Queue: 2 jobs
Job 1
Amino acid sequence: MTRLGSADELFAARADLAAAADGKKRVLVCSTGCLAIGARDIEAAFREGIAEAGLDEEVEVVATGCHGLCAMAPVVVVEPDDVMYGRVRPKFVPDVIAKTVQGGEIVSRLTYGRDEASAHPRDIPFFEHQTKRVLHNVGRVDPQRIEDAIAHGAYGSVAKMLSGMQPDEVIDEVRTSAIRGRGGGGFPVWRKWESCKGYAADERYLICNADEGDPGAFMDRALLEGDPHGVIEGMIIAAFAVGSTKGYVYVRAEYPIAVRHVQLAIEQAREWGLLGEDILGSGFGFDIEVREGAGAFVCGEASALVASIEGRRGTPRPKPPRMTEQGLFGMPTNINNVETFANIPMIIAEGGAVYAQSGTEGSKGTKIFALAGQVKNTGLVEVPMGATIRDIVFGVGGGIPRGREFKAVQMGGPSGGCVPAAHLDLPIDYDSLREVGAIMGSGGMIVMDETTCMVDIARYFISFCANESCGACAPCRLGNVRLEQILDRICEGQGTEADLDTLEQLADVVRSTTLCGLGQTAPNPVLSTMEYFRDEYLAHVVDKTCPAGVCKALVPPEPALAGSEA
Amino acid sequence: MVGPGGTDTVDLNPVRRVLDEMAPVRHEHLIPLLQAIQADYGYLPREALAEASTSTGIPLSHLFGVATFYAQFYLEPHARHTIRVCRGTACHVRGRQAIQDAVDAHLGIGDGETTEDGRYGIETVACLGTCFLAPVVMVDHDYYGSVIPGKIPEILEEYE
């Protein structure tokens, strides 16, 4: 352990650490998401096998974060040749060690296409269509060793910033980059920072919102688990810009690995002089505390999150005043999402102008999507803003399995909407999605095929929101429950056409009268499915059938019906 | 205040130790405090909350208010092992209901209930963020991905 006393010492340490690691063979085992499918045994098998072969000196086994192609889990990458294997079982490990680690050969049956031609990420369409910038180090670095993170460039932007930049210059770079908040709303990041900085106060707080509660979203989880130092670095830069000395990472307790990795990363950063007083000898001090959420979706909302950190029930309060004016403990507070912070080091390193070269007119940079549902290549995907839904679902995702038809993609979680096939060529950015009734949200993309019932999906999301409503305001507490009851009735075959009108009217009331974002956006899944899939609603209430065959109380769709009649 | 050694009493030593370790407990430490108490007892015994209230000066009503708001806290003794069947969107469209049914049937209990021997309890969870391996089940802190209903007994057997 070295306490770094200056920016130069950081650069020197990076050079030493990178030199020491140079040319070393590494076996990278995803030990975060892939843990769900046996990665711990794989890692153990590699450690054992490498030791037995007497290769300890030249080969390092690294437990990394997510490589992205989760459909191939558990995933292993062998460096320096970047050979990627999936569906690895402990019994295959001796073969991989003998052939690939030692012999430089490919074990064909473990590659993406079970052939030599698809042995490297660059040969796999899933990666070919991506631009990994924010995720660059996720899956590459050992998230539990700051040395490895530094060798891969971590804290370089903090060092650059503390070697002479002023807070206003930092905000200027972020303004030039035009980055918008990745948590869902898409608010310009610089404006929030400048607003927070502008209020006179004894203390300003910085909060990293890692309460990733949207069902179907797991990019923040992957960032915290796979590259926690990248997030911490972004927080240090933001703290310097807004003039904060105290920060919090508010992370879901449902993410135990993320909690552990970020806690460890904070401790290590402190030991290295990258957090705490006098960071890199600059005189600037900033420290971070981890707070675990206690299981409340609404705490992803800024004022509820703040209430939770203060030790209160997580109910939102009316705004204004905004958090940047009166947030945590009544002080100006800047809250950004995990992915937003993870973008910041890049903006400082290359400059806001370079950053702004990628993306669309109104949405710059890349966006990470969590691709899941009825799609071949599920996983973590990073593409430039402006990529189309087709690029992601069919290019990166490889399309729908089992020859089924694409029906819709659900974007933005419970606050978002279902985008139908007609919009497959829509370039994705904050504004285009809003126009079609969805939102960027945090970036969850759930692909649905013909076996998904859109009425059931609407019911699913409303039931989620009714369940998670904090109860503070009546339209949300009661309105969502009523919406759920109507949808229940429709799914049980008791619905009438009049119910559809009631749904629309009530959805509109809930949307326009609730207190916070949770309630205001809760009806979106209902409204978007009613707009694009009204025929399915009509099938439920008029024909009493469920075209997807999901709603059990209703008669099955046509073919099965014909069969039973014959 | 209940004395030590009584049959139906709650041992207050763990909560006292937690309060000592976290002292001085300010209001902002309330949730970490409840999390620490629950880590020791497995739930939040009324007696322990009363002790925490006396010691910190935070009204008992407030402790209960917070404890009942968040899904993580239990006011009753809880099972040794918590089974969470994810009800996230991806799991929903990839057959989570069949998994939930298999768990319920295997244990003979439903959501929010605990088996008679206190070995297992079932909870639903909004999303475990493991959507790429849907459907997903979490037992305590372990994730199980791409689960099929027939695998459930084997998975659960691991947890004593």
Job 2
Amino acid sequence: MRVQKSVRTLGFVGLAALAATQANAQSTLTVAGREVQLHGFVQQGFVFTSDNNFLTMGSDNGSGEMTDGGINASTKFNDKLRVGAQLYVRNLGQFGNGRVELDWIFADYQVNEKVGFRGGKVKTQLGLINDTQDMEFLHTWALLPQSVYPLDLRSVTIAHTGGDVYGRFNTKKAGQFAYNAYVGILPDDKRGGYRYGLEDRGLGIIGDIKRHGGGGDLRWTAPLEGLQVGVSHMETRGEFNLRSQQIPIPLNVDMKKWNITSLYGDYQYENWHFSAEYRRTLAELVVTPSAAPTAPIDSRGWFASGAYRIAKPLELGAYYSRYIPDTRFDSSLDSNHLSGPTATARYDFARFVSVKAEMHFLDGTGDPLSPRGFYTRNNKGGLNDSTSMFVLRTAFSF
Amino acid sequence: MKKLGLIVMLAACVGATGTVRAAEMQVIANPSVKSAAVSVDELKNVFLGNTSSLADGSKVEPVLAESGAAHDEFLKDVVGKSGPALKNHLKTLVFTGKGSMPKSFASEADIVKYVAKTPGAIGYVSAGAAADGVKKMALK
């Protein structure tokens, strides 16, 4: 069954690639006299872990249940108006299940460099690379630092259905400032890690998670070539209903606050590339009926990375990532931290194909309520306090 | 005197290097583009997908070379990114829906041909390349 899902996922992306080969070398088609750009990608991963199973895969025996891909089409109506859409599919262990979803679809009207508007389902700009967190081929790493960009919780921040205003201002001496602000409804991923993590605790969500909110991002491109720093903030709220094995009536969870603040920096100099990001998540959930009010959950995650391209096709890099699910509790507990170093080699074959080999040395397990890959259901013998993990990942993009 | 000679020689070398760099790449545009000159910052913003017009209001469409000495110089002196970094930047725009992939050509003749026939097109070739039907733009 799982193999079927992977084959279905690959089949979808294979069709996308076939469509591209029917287009010319620039991946463009002409439809009703209008040029339409077509682009797509497919990624396939293999994960082997020393102990704990990772991301709902049977990774302690080695697993290739890590397939995803997408295809998009976009066209310009005139100099200011552009429209486009992207379909996305993933089969990641028990997440995604090979179901094709609309990743983004929007109209973009750019009045001028200083101001533009987007409306529809838009990828959310939050932190350094939130909007491309599921496209590892754009990054050095086979797995992005899970402290900040967890694959399980992709849908929590990946996109919103609503509107954006964006633009940039150039100054003569102080560099360039780019801004983005948005409001909208956030998606509910029924095949994602948030629900799966709750089920790990014997809780099940009834119906949909309703969440809405807004946020903004301000990034400064410094006069020093290659340096960019920024800050993002997102405020959301919503609600959902839970069933518990211990309580006979449904529980209502009022998400009074689910806010994320991110500080980040990126520096590229010749063949060097350094990045760092710090993210704080504050969540205030009021459960009804409840015995006592709860204090906000305060999660922190950060990473620092460095990479060097030693030859045109070969890049080597490393990062350190640390995540604390809830700072109210002792972060030395295995269930209240996940941290460790990662080392990566990336090789780019021609223009379209990349292969990455990556080693992770993880300490701790994180918490299923704010998951970072480890669940008790997939680790029936119990979670070990450390995990060594090898990830091999290849991508094709056009 | 010997020291002065050395300084003159060094200055000549620096000058010669500068001349060679400037001579490797030539910005070209379709004759519909109004300006005769373009600044490095304007050009950079156009090729990074930040804007689709020049300071004079001309609408422009960037055209990339796939490789070559002029391309290398353009990356280093104008865009300020390596080839893979520029490719990733453009793919980021494409896969988030926030921009389009510029046209790119393997040969300078194809770049010149496309720029000559496409209103607003702006690209770069080697300084010595034949540039029939296009406008040569000075770099401010």
